[in-house]
Design brief:
By secondary structure, the protein is mainly beta. The protein has helices at about 1-10, 90-95, 120-130; strands spanning about 30-40, 50-65, 65-80, 100-105, 110-115, 145-150, 165, 170-180, 180-195, 200-215, 220-235, 235-250.
C-alpha cells in the first residue's frame, strides 16, 4: 500500500497552458498556403481548383495588447481542370490576389479587432489560414480541455457582392498535446449558414476538422491542416464539395 501511495504522490501534476498572441515586433514571417477545392457538378461543371499563395506578414507594432500586422501576397498560382468553368478565371484571380497588402489588428486572444471589413482583407487572411479559424482561451487550459468560439459568416458577404449570408458557426478548439514550448490544437467546425442570391435561398452545411501547431510563448502558428466538406441545398437539389487547406512557413 505504501509504495502505491508513493507512486501516486510522485506522479507529475499536469500544468495549465496560457496562450497570448504576442510575436516580436519588427519580425517578418513568410507562409505558403495551398487550398484544394473539389466541386464536380457533372459534365462541363467541374468547379475544382487549386490556389497556392505565398504571403509575408510583418509585426508592425503592439499597443495595450493589440498587435498590428501588415500582410502582403508575394506569389499566387491558381490552377483548374482544363476546359472547366474555373479554368477561364484563374488569371483574373491571380491578378486580384497578387501584390495585395492588407493591415489588421489582432488582440491577445488572436481575434481580429480591425482591418477585416474589406473583401480583399478577408480573402488574404482566409488564404493564410489564420484569421477566423480559432482563437485563444481567456484562461489557462490543460491538455484535453476545450473552448468554444463562433464564426460570424455574415462577414463573408463582402467576398460575394450581391449575396446575403447569415449564421454563426461554432468553433470548438481543444488542446491536444504540448511538445516542449509548442502546443497542438485541434479545431472542429460544424454548423449551417443561410445564403440568398438573386432571390434564391441557399442552405449550406459545413463540417471541418483541422490541426494547428502553435508556439505557446508567441502565439505564432508553425503549420495548419484543415479538411472541410460542404453540403449545399438549392432549388431542390443537393450539391457537395470538399476542400483541403495547408499552411507552412517558407
Amino acid at each position: 500500500m505504501i509504495p502505491y501511495l508513493i507512486a501516486v504522490v510522485a506522479l507529475p501534476v499536469q500544468s495549465s497552458v496560457s496562450f497570448a498572441y504576442q510575436p516580436p515586433v519588427g519580425a517578418t514571417f513568410k507562409y505558403r498556403t495551398i487550398i484544394d477545392s473539389n466541386q464536380n457538378m457533372g459534365a462541363g461543371m467541374d468547379l475544382s481548383s487549386r490556389i497556392q499563395m505565398d504571403a509575408q506578414t510583418k509585426i508592425v507594432s503592439r499597443t495595450a495588447g493589440l498587435t498590428k500586422l501588415e500582410t502582403k501576397t508575394l506569389a499566387v498560382k491558381v490552377t483548374a481542370p482544363k476546359g472547366s468553368p474555373m479554368a477561364g478565371q484563374t488569371a483574373q484571380l491571380e491578378k486580384m490576389l497578387m501584390g495585395n497588402t492588407t493591415t489588421s489588428t489582432i488582440d491577445r486572444n488572436f481575434k481580429p479587432v480591425s482591418g477585416q471589413s474589406t473583401a480583399m482583407n478577408q480573402v488574404t487572411q482566409g488564404m493564410m489560414g489564420a484569421m477566423g479559424t480559432y482563437s485563444f482561451p481567456n484562461k489557462p487550459i490543460k491538455i484535453g480541455e476545450s473552448w468554444t468560439t463562433k464564426m460570424d459568416v455574415s462577414k463573408m458577404g463582402a467576398m460575394a457582392p450581391g449575396m446575403k449570408i447569415s449564421g454563426n458557426i461554432p468553433i470548438v478548439c481543444k488542446l491536444v498535446s504540448v511538445q516542449g514550448g509548442d502546443a497542438i490544437i485541434s479545431v472542429t467546425m460544424n454548423g449551417t449558414m443561410q445564403m440568398e442570391a438573386s432571390g434564391q435561398a441557399i442552405k449550406m452545411k459545413l463540417e471541418s476538422q483541422g490541426t494547428s501547431k502553435v508556439a505557446i510563448a508567441t502565439g505564432l502558428s508553425f503549420y495548419s491542416d484543415t479538411k472541410s466538406s460542404y453540403t449545399m441545398e438549392v432549388g431542390g437539389q443537393t450539391m457537395k464539395s470538399t476542400m483541403t487547406q495547408t499552411m507552412r512557413p517558407l
